[in-house]
Amino acid sequence: MASVWVLQHVKAEPPGILAEVLRFAGAATRLVRIFRQEPIPPSLADAAGLVIMGGPMGVYEQARYPFLADEMRLIEQALGAGKPVLGVCLGSQLLAAALGVPVRRGLRKEIGWHRVSLTAAAATDPLWAGVESSFMGYHWHGDVFELPRGATALAASELTPCQAFRYDRSAYGLLFHMEVTAPIVTAMVAAFADELADCGLDGNAILERMPDHLPPLQAIGRAVFARWVRFVTEGSAP
């Protein structure tokens, strides 16, 4: 079976429960650890799908992080070939940029537990149909983007109008995180402690709220990710 390629930018942001869902579905994966200087393949070749995870770098920092341009080329190849794409946080920003939308710094950073509200279009979306219309999401981003032309808006938060979108049949961008586990949240709080301090945020408060908010978010994440993986394993909409 052709594998799903997963691009991981930093150690603290692995695919988490998405990796679990891929394994459960029997989908082979190829993990590219960019933080270990593993090279990004020049083309998708026979990859079955593409996943791009989060990271602290910005789409507009390609001079500093040349691999971002390489990732955008892979995204463009996947879109052109109609292969499933899933972008999480930075990954959603790269997907939006590949679709021609500028990515910019938001008015302020959105970090921690904040409510996500689904749009009316999500009620009939192949991934989001049947999911409760409002839930507590986990966020860690400072950059934002407008809805790409031709895309469908799927979710928003009080601070960020475009939290999730679908383009074409099987390309999805999620600005918030549903892949996180307790160790991942803990690792992010530790890895990005300086950022929290700069924003005047308390990492312990994020961790204290985790037992209440993480389990229901993971349940939603598993359901949504499982539907996306079916694009890969079955080659058809869920």
Write structural notes for this entry:
The structure is a single chain. The protein is an alpha/beta fold. The chain has one domain (about 5-235): 3-Layer(aba) Sandwich (Rossmann fold). The chain is built from six helices and nine strands; from the N terminus they run βαββαβαβββββααα. It has helices spanning about 15-25, 65-80, 90-100, 180-190, 195-200, 205-235, and strands at about 5-10, 30-35, 50, 85-90, 105-120, 135-145, 150-155, 165, 170-175. The protein has a nine-stranded mixed sheet with strand order 2-1-3-4-9-8-7-5-6, sandwiched between helices. A hairpin with a 6-residue loop joins strand 7 and strand 8 (about 165). It is globular. It starts with a strand and ends with a helix. The model has no long low-confidence stretch (mean pLDDT about 95).
Q: What distinguishing features does this structure have?
A:
single chain, 9-stranded mixed sheet, 26% strand
As a percent range, the share of strand residues is 25-35%
Tell me the major beta sheet: 9 strands, mixed
Overall mean pLDDT: 96
CATH class: Alpha Beta
What can be said about this structure in brief?
The chain is an alpha/beta fold. It contains 6 helices and 9 strands; from the N terminus they run E-H-E-E-H-E-H-E-E-E-E-E-H-H-H.
